[in-house]
Design brief:
47% strand, 1 helix, single chain, 7-stranded antiparallel β-sheet, DUF4360, mainly beta, signal, 5-stranded antiparallel β-sheet, 227 residues, 3% helix
Length: 227
């Protein structure tokens, strides 16, 4: 279930005895909600041909998407020998949202399988858009030391410098304003003394679920202001 965020302003009294006399009111319970994926459109070099296969599960009340065709290898003789990258944009339409509340994306998590040389780096990037508004972006580069049993997982705080970006309020239909996430994942090789480049592999093929690229987001909800 997706959690809700409630904000309150504490009332500070100079006399503790007055505080004890005030009636104590419990905060309203967050609404119970199970947001569903109504539709998802994908495009980009890392997206499956024809929109599939993309596997979907849930984690922390939000969908997790697994891309099974992200396979990259270095050296890449078709392009530049020191770098290989793919990207994919997911345009997600969510339904059954909590009416009268608004959404923001707290963070994006990207994980997956890789087998790289000690001097090869993995580059990861995300860009988010919520209801037509830019909602933050981030980039990170990690090395072999971040892998555990060939698996990595990195979480991006996508909050823009200008502050949190919230969606419009969820209407009576329960349809949440469209969420768009652009993810990029690639390999960066290091040039060696003999002129060759370090190598590695990121992701798998369409039949290899265990080596898919995992993407999920952390949602935060708040009550819309009363007009």
């Amino acid at each position: 279930m997706l959690s809700s965020q409630w904000w309150g302003v504490p009332l500070l009294l100079s006399l503790s005895s007055l505080t004890a006399c005030l009636p104590q009111t419990a905060p309203p319970a967050p609404p119970s909600t199970a947001v569903t994926v109504k539709n998802m459109t994908v495009y980009g070099t890392g997206c499956p041909i024809g929109g599939g296969p993309i596997s979907q599960s849930t984690k922390g009340g939000a969908p997790v998407f697994v891309f099974r065709e992200w396979g990259l290898s270095l050296p890449d003789t078709d392009e530049t020998p020191e770098e290989a990258e793919k990207w994919c944009v997911e345009q997600i339409t969510l339904g059954d949202g909590p009416v009268g509340m608004q959404l923001r994306v707290k963070s994006i998590t990207i994980g997956g399988w890789a087998d790289i040389d000690a001097d090869t780096k993995i580059s990861l990037s995300v860009q988010t858009n919520l209801g037509g508004k830019a909602a933050g972006a981030a980039t990170i580069t990690i090395g072999k030391d971040k892998l555990k049993d060939n698996d990595f997982e990195e979480t991006f705080d996508t909050k823009p410098d200008t502050g949190d970006v919230w969606s419009a309020c969820v209407p009576a239909s329960g349809d949440v304003p469209q969420l768009s996430i652009r993810i990029g994942a690639g390999l960066i090789g290091a040039k060696r003394a003999d002129g060759t480049f370090s190598g590695g592999t990121l992701g798998g093929n369409s039949t290899d679920m265990a080596r898919g690229l995992r993407v999920n987001f952390t949602p935060v909800w708040q009550q819309c202001a009363t007009p």
